[in-house]
């Protein structure tokens, strides 16, 4: 218990410092970006040059740095993290090089002003931190290892937004098929401590007066919304469901296009900096404030967008000549000759494809914040429409309550992120971010409706990337009754060792298979007393034993133990024979000797299934325990093996045939 508290405090403190440092550096970078743009006012050509060059340098630096240091740092890391938590070992992902590349590359990307986010990247960083520095002495058990890594995920969102409750729930929804309740308190403790330190650092740096919500709102609490507004909130949820599914589809199509073997993609692969540079150039050109950017609030940076979209003003009621006091950066949404509706619509459309494309650049990036802003813009658009339809507000109990477009923006942000990530906890994150729980009911309604629509149309953004990258992740099994058993999908020709196996047989097995673990049986044959599973042996253990058996050190030891009076198949001191021939003859003789299994570490209880284990139970066990394979036995006899690959392939084939059934027989219910 004492060790638990210590390493959780260290994890929370470390990740809070990392998150705050990244925010501080990227904020200073954005300040320099806006300062250059302001200082060059009056010279449009130089303004444009500075506006597009600054982010291009940062993005190309991030891409090059990650490519040279650790290509595994590219992207959000959530698809790979889900696979690792599934029990699959992915090399070079939880390393110090990946940590450094992710931190520096992500800081440069955030400081460029491009629509990329850091939120889910903190999942990955906290997991690396936990794996490298804190976890090894705590729990060497492989099942406990993946179990405790979920705590690292929970800290990620907590130290990014200062939202420990939503952070823990979001990490569970995104990364875990099954979550051990015993880790609940660990996740909440580490996330709360990390969020506290993160906000204290903001106060210490005078970014905030006291510890408050990151995007604090001031909606009225006595009557935040009327029940007559619920249909509008439902429309936001359903619309965000369709839009979120389309975002996932668009993002996947861009990734697939870049992976397609065409002349263009081969050229971009050889010249890695051209693609991120071109994407940044196009986006920066379109958002240039004196140009097209003036019609889509292009001068606002991501956090400024959120703060302005959540404000308490109704923009449609503000005249183009006089702005009310306190409007601040929200004035960027108001244009003297263009309607607010047009600006919001243009912003949403342009940022939609910009976000979908920018998250495919070979840099550390996440889609949570860009999608969050998209949802806020869409919700704000609906809110301004409602304020126009009901200019005097809604009458209730003799009192007229005006529409709050900012509340619609909060609901839209939660619904859109929920639709893209297939999570419900975004509602909790939103009310922690804004510091108000007044809109939690309509927010939950919108998020649930968005999830219902999106889950029926597309996988989540992270599952979509898993499919594109073909990561060994076991997908969810659709509900239904399957009359299928392990014996229908298992591999029957199993490679194994017996207690009588020779070193020659062991050498053949090591040379012709890539199995990480090899089953051990009592004896091979067809008798009733043969093929009884005794356990399994790690490949590394067998390789070490075999290498020692034919090693020069052992050969020298055997030579020293040989006495001149004894007859031996190999005469070590015969100078009439060629030395290499003697070694070869000795090795041949040694290969025919049996392997001493008593000198090898054997796992006496490998995971086993019986032939009639159902597909549903097999899928559940593989997902729950993070299994890579299981041996199939019949009355103790080894009859087959089923690996993660077989379960995945069968699941995909099952889905294909179900789709073909519906296509060929529309109207028939399976």
Give the overall silhouette. elongated
Which spans have pLDDT < 50 for at least 5 consecutive residues?
Answer: 136-141, 563-574, 656-670
Biggest sheet: strands, sense, closure?
A: 3 strands, mixed
Portion in beta strands: 5-15%
Give the tally of β-strands: 8
State the end-to-end CA separation: 51 Å
Please give the count of helices: 25
Describe this structure in words.
The two termini are 51 Å apart. Strand 3 (497-498), helix 20 (503-512) and strand 4 form a beta-alpha-beta unit. This protein has helices at 2-39, 44-69, 78-85, 96-110, 119-134, 142-161, 164-175, 184-204, 230-259, 263-270, 274-286, 302-309, 340-358, 368-389, 405-421, 426-434, 440-457, 461-469, 486-489, 503-512, 539-549, 552-561, 579-591, 615-625, 644-664, and strands at 394-396, 399-401, 497-498, 517-521, 533-538, 608-610, 629-634, 637-643. Helix content is 58%, strand content 5%. Helix 20 (503-512) packs across helix 21. The protein has 25 helices and eight strands. The chain has 670 residues and is mainly alpha-helical. GO terms for molecular function: voltage-gated chloride channel activity. It is a multi-pass membrane protein.
């Amino acid at each position: 218990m004492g060790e638990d508290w210590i390493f959780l405090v260290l994890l929370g403190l470390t990740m809070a410092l990392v998150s705050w440092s990244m925010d501080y550096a990227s904020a200073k970078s954005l300040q320099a970006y806006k300062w250059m743009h302001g200082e060059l006012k009056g010279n449009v050509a130089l303004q444009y040059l500075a506006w597009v060059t600054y982010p291009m340098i940062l993005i190309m630096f991030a891409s090059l740095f990650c490519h040279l240091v650790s290509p595994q740092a590219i992207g959000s890391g959530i698809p790979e993290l889900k696979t690792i938590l599934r029990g699959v070992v992915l090399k070079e992902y939880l390393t110090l090089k990946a940590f450094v590349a992710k931190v520096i590359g992500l800081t440069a990307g955030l400081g460029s002003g491009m629509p990329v986010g850091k939120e889910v990247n903190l999942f990955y960083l906290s997991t690396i931190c936990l794996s490298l520095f804190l976890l090894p002495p705590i729990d060497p058990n492989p099942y406990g290892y993946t179990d405790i890594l979920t705590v690292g995920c929970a800290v990620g969102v907590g130290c990014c937004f200062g939202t420990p409750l939503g952070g823990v729930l979001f990490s569970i929804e995104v990364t875990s098929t099954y979550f051990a309740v015993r880790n609940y308190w660990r996740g909440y403790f580490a996330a709360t401590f990390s969020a506290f330190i993160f906000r204290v650092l903001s106060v210490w740096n005078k970014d905030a007066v006291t510890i408050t919500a990151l995007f604090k709102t001031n909606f009225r609490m006595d009557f935040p919304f009327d029940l007559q507004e619920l249909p509008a909130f439902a429309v936001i949820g359903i619309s965000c469901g369709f839009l979120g599914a389309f975002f996932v589809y668009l993002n996947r199509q861009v990734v697939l296009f870049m992976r397609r073997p065409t002349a263009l993609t081969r050229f971009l692969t050889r010249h890695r900096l051209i693609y991120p540079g071109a994407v940044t150039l196009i986006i920066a050109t379109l958002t240039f404030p004196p140009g097209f950017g003036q019609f889509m609030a292009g001068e606002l940076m991501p956090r400024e967008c959120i703060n302005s979209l959540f404000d308490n003003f109704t923009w449609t009621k503000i005249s183009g000549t006089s702005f009310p006091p306190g409007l601040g950066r929200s004035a960027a949404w108001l244009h003297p000759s263009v309607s607010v509706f047009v600006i919001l619509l243009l912003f949403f459309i342009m940022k939609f494809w910009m976000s979908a494309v920018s998250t495919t650049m070979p840099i550390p990036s996440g889609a949570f914040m860009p999608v969050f802003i998209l949802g806020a813009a869409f919700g704000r658009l609906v809110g301004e429409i409602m304020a126009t339809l009901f200019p005097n507000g809604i009458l209730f109990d003799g009192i007229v309550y005006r529409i709050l477009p900012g509340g619609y923006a909060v609901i839209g942000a939660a619904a859109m992120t929920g639709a893209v990530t297939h999570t419900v906890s975004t509602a909790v994150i939103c009310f922690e971010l804004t510091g108000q729980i007044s809109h939690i009911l309509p927010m939950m309604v919108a998020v649930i409706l968005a999830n219902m629509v999106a889950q029926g149309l597309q996988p989540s953004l992270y599952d979509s990337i898993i499919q594109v990258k073909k990561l060994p992740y076991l997908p969810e099994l659709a509900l239904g009754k399957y009359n299928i058993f392990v014996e229908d999908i298992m591999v029957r020709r199993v490679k194994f060792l017996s207690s009588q196996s020779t070193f020659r047989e062991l050498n053949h097995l090591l040379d012709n298979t890539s199995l990480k673990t090899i089953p051990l049986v009592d004896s091979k044959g067809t008798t009733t007393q043969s093929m009884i599973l005794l356990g399994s042996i790690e490949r590394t253990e067998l390789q070490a034993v075999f290498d020692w058996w034919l090693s020069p050190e052992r050969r020298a030891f055997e030579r020293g133990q040989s006495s001149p009076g004894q007859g031996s198949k190999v005469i070590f001191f015969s100078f009439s024979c060629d030395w290499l021939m003697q070694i070869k003859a000795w090795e041949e003789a040694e290969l025919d000797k049996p392997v001493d299994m008593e000198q090898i570490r054997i796992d006496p209880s490998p995971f086993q299934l019986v032939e009639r284990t159902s597909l549903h139970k097999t899928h559940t066990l593989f997902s729950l325990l993070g299994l890579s394979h299981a041996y199939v036995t019949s009355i103790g006899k080894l009859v087959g093996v089923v690996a993660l690959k077989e379960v995945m392939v069968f699941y995909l084939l099952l889905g294909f045939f179900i789709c073909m059934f519906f296509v060929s027989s529309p109207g028939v219910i399976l």
